Amino acid sequence: MKEELTGEEVIQRVKAEIGPKTLLAFSGGKDSVACYLALRDHFEIVPFYLYRIPGLAFVEESLQRYEKAMGVKIIRLPHEALPRWLANNVFQSPGNAAVLDAAQIPEHEYSDCIQWACEIAGLDHSKMMAAIGTRAADNPVRRLAFTNYGAINKAKKQYAPIWDWNKERVLTAIEKSGIKLSVDYQLFGRSFDGLDYRFLSQIKKHFPDDYKKILTWFPLAEAEVYRYERAKA
After folding, report:
1. What's the Cα-to-Cα distance from 21 to each of 1, 33, 128, 218, 230, rounded to whole Å?
2. What's the predicted TM-score (pTM) here?
């Protein structure tokens, strides 16, 4: 069992090791906003966002609002899921699949994203770490992981400053800050992070241009929406 530090103690220990700047893995969700709030009085924060589909207008609008509220630029990088989806022909037509197979799109890992963010921000990758908004209260699996491994993972270059926060504390901190959560919460009840029906149906309804853009990347994603709509008919 790892030493159990409070979130505040995690911040102080990491700061002593990496210095005055930190990366923040920023999904645009409530926990990543709370993580920013926990860090802002201790670090110069360099947030990065991993996009699953490049150039979606509703995502970009939310990121720009967050940038204005936080007073900091958010680095945009491709999520490791994007090349993996393409390489595995997710929602691809036969013609597209043949092209993608021939292209042999290289995949990358989360650790690569941390390195790229460091390079863009001029940070020392060898000692830098990224704060994540993961919380033990989310589910028993995460609670067990924190119990076994602690809130600082040097191997993955990650640490969890709000691992010991509950949902009420997260929402209270955000409300007091005046930062408004993204439109994702109105549409999906959480931040956008996939290509399943719960996301696609709302994007199709409220952001048709973004839905068309998704279909340029994953043309058979329409089948996901059609299947659920037919099942409800």
Report:
1. 29, 17, 8, 37, 51
2. 0.94
